[in-house]
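Appendix B. Raw example, untouched.
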Amino acid sequence: MLLGDGTDAYGEKIAEARREKGKFTEFAPESIRYQDAVTVGRLGAKLLQEGKGLSYQELLPDYMRQAEAERKLAEKQAEVQKREQDRDFNYRSPSDRGAR
């Protein structure tokens, strides 16, 4: 079931990609589409009434993008790696510089 702001902007594209893989996509009704504690509770109650409840061990999020902290960490790690590669590329040993 698709929830959240991205549903409005990307829901049809996501559903199409899932259809191509033989998967059905259900769009959450607007009354519960946007995440907050009340909405999560309502959705959980609805699923329980339909016999589709899960234990907490079975419930897994499907994040569509990395958290901001993860993105920033990856960017920082990429910068450090690039600096190290640049430094290694630009380093010339004394023998490379013609020193004897």
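End of appendix B.
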